[in-house]
Design goal:
Length: 160
C-alpha cells in the first residue's frame, strides 16, 4: 500500500493525514510503517513497500497476515510488470494463509485502464481459479477517496 492510500485511510478515520496525501502520485520508494486505527479497539500496522523494492519483498512476508497489492492503473506500461510481480509474490510460501486485496488505484482518471482490460491482461479468472488465496479486488483513488471506505471494511473483516 503506498503512502497516500494509508494516509487517506487514516484521514477517513478522523486522523490528520492530509499532508501526506499531497505525494499521492509519487511512487513509494523504500519502506514505511503506518499504523491505521480500524476502530476504537483495533489498530493494524501496514508496511508499505515501494515497487522499486520488489527484489527484497520476500524478506518482509514472513509474518504477513494480509497482502494489499496496489496497482497504478494509469500507467499502462507498468500494469504488465505488476502482473508478473503479483504472480511471483503469490507463490511465496510465507503467504500460505494470507488474505489478499488488490487495489486498482487511480480509477478516477480518464487515462486509466478499465477493469475489463485489467482482468483480461492479468488473466484474472485463471488467477482466481488456481490460487490458494482468497483474493479480493477494489477500485480506488487515493486522491478522491473512491473505494477507501471499502478497503477499511475489508481490513476490519480480515484483521486478526
Amino acid at each position: 500500500m503506498r503512502g497516500c492510500e494509508s494516509a487517506k485511510l487514516k484521514e477517513q478515520k478522523g486522523l490528520d493525514a492530509l499532508d501526506k496525501c499531497k505525494k499521492c502520485n509519487v511512487e513509494k520508494i523504500g519502506t514505511n510503517l503506518v499504523n491505521i486505527s480500524l476502530n476504537k479497539k483495533q489498530e493494524i500496522t501496514v508496511r508499505e513497500l515501494g515497487g522499486s523494492m520488489s527484489p527484497i519483498w520476500p524478506n518482509y512476508l514472513k509474518d504477513c497476515h494480509f497482502l494489499i497489492y496496489v496497482i497504478d492503473m494509469s500507467n499502462r506500461l507498468q500494469v504488465s510488470a505488476a502482473c508478473m510481480l503479483f504472480l511471483s509474490i503469490l507463490t511465496n510460501p510465507s503467504l500460505k494463509d494470507c488474505q489478499v486485496l488488490v487495489l486498482l488505484n487511480k480509477m478516477d482518471l480518464t487515462t486509466t485502464m478499465s477493469r475489463h482490460e485489467f482482468e483480461s491482461l492479468f488473466r484474472w479468472d485463471d488467477i482466481l481459479k488456481h490460487s490458494p488465496h482468497q483474493i479480493s479486488v477494489k477500485e480506488v483513488s487515493a486522491v478522491s477517496g473512491l473505494g477507501l471506505s471499502e478497503v477499511l471494511e475489508w481490513l476490519l473483516q480480515h484483521s486478526k
